[in-house]
Specification:
It is built from 14 helices and 15 strands. It is of the alpha/beta class and 384 residues long. It folds into 2 domains: 212 residues, BirA Bifunctional Protein, domain 2 (2-Layer Sandwich), CATH 3.30.930; 57 residues, no CATH class. Helix 2 runs antiparallel to helix 5. The two termini are 40 Å apart.
Length: 384
């Protein structure tokens, strides 16, 4: 009984951490590889930053500063420097582009994948160790760049088998532009009301721009024409922001004519450091957005456009995974023959018994092999 308790305790993991086993582990790896291959077809090159960095650089200004509260910290026993485990990889890509790749021609097209750690899980994920994949276009953050990376992101998500994808487009900095004349207290109240979609609370604020904000909120939806009618009431900067968002939508519809697109120009939630058009991608049956991105400035002040894919959510929507079928290879079959099957892309299991031993078939069944190879001439036989 004591031994059983010890074994149980050794199997326990900290809150929010899990072991991934077959077939889920292979299914997830296949999805990640498929997605990265898609990014590569668009000209994005792989980079692999470390899991741990100096706290002073990983959590510096720009995207990194917004992740400080989410990040684990530790002291390096060798140098006594404070380190941080990444909770998001965007800041690392910005660091690489601003240092290692500083003198490379722009734009840089970079893609990445890896584990991230969060101190506290978010409301949609109980896990604290998450898998992130994404891409960054460094050097430009205009609407053309956003359209490029969004078209690619949708293609990558479709390539892993997700269905019924939808896109929400917004301009996170638009609210700030429209609220620029409010007092600090009024601005805080207005932003909260916008986030809560509380029009009644907005109308209690005494400012001429509030009516325009309410009109923009009422114009949100799938019809861009309603927003176009409001352009004459906006400042030039605000008009340009809406124009950029509609341009991205036009490019997206050119690539995917039937893709549902929703306009929510004042959406700010989760876009802590974005400066231009932002987007969220959803898929039917999956809770929360599966990807997010948009235009921003790196910690080095360089314009950039990014895409972050929340793989834990993507994994939940993958189609049924068909594991590879294994061939049982008895001990009297030559290694050369075994390697020939591997070269053909087949999966093999090296057995412990000869082909004429009845234990060979029993072991093959125990190991869940689909076929058994009884000689080097005939093809493998299916195990019933």
């Amino acid at each position: 009984m004591v031994q059983e308790d010890e074994n149980f305790n050794q199997g326990l993991l900290p809150v929010g951490l899990v072991d991934l086993l077959e077939p889920i582990a292979s299914q997830n790896d296949h999805a990640i590889t498929t997605m990265l291959n898609c990014f590569g077809q668009f000209g994005y090159q792989r980079v692999k930053p470390p899991l741990v960095e100096f706290e002073s650089t990983l959590l510096a200004k720009g995207p990194g500063a917004t992740t400080a509260a989410k990040s684990f910290r530790l002291m390096d026993p060798l140098t006594q420097d404070m380190m941080a485990l990444r909770s998001d990889m965007t800041a690392q890509i910005a660091r690489i582009s601003g240092t290692r790749l500083k003198h490379e021609p722009r734009p840089l097209r970079l893609t990445y994948e890896g584990d991230v750690m969060r101190v506290i899980p978010d409301s949609l994920n109980s896990e604290r160790q998450l898998y992130q994949a994404g891409a960054e276009l460094i050097g430009y953050n205009d609407a053309t760049a956003t359209a490029e990376i969004l078209v690619m992101g949708v293609k990558a998500l479709l390539s892993v088998g997700l269905k019924s994808i939808t896109v929400d487009l917004g301009v996170p900095s638009l609210a700030e532009k429209l609220l620029c004349n409010l007092s600090a207290d009024q601005s805080v109240l207005a932003k909260k009301s916008i986030l809560d979609k509380d029009i009644d609370a907005l109308l209690k604020i005494d400012d001429k721009n509030i009516n325009l904000i309410v009109k923009v909120m009422n114009a949100s939806g799938s019809d861009g024409e309603a927003l176009l009618k409001l352009l004459p009431e906006m400042s030039e900067d605000a008009r340009n922001m809406i124009d950029d968002m509609l341009f991205v939508a036009f490019q997206l519809r050119d690539a995917y004519p039937t893709l549902p697109i929703t306009f929510d120009p004042l959406e700010m939630r989760g876009f802590d450091y974005h400066t231009g058009v932002g987007f969220s991608i959803f898929a039917e049956g999956l809770r929360g957005e599966i990807a997010r991105g948009g235009a921003y400035l790196t910690g080095f002040g360089e314009p950039a456009t990014g895409l972050s894919v929340y793989m834990e959510r993507v994994f939940r929507g993958l189609p049924e995974f068909m594991p590879k079928q294994h061939i049982y290879i008895p001990t009297d079959i030559s290694k050369q023959t075994m390697l020939k099957y591997i070269d053909r892309g087949r999966c093999v299991i090296a057995g412990r018994y000869k082909s004429d031993d009845k234990l060979a078939l029993e072991e093959a069944k125990q190991l869940k092999c689909t076929f058994i190879l009884l000689n080097s001439i005939s093809p493998p036989e299916k195990i019933e």
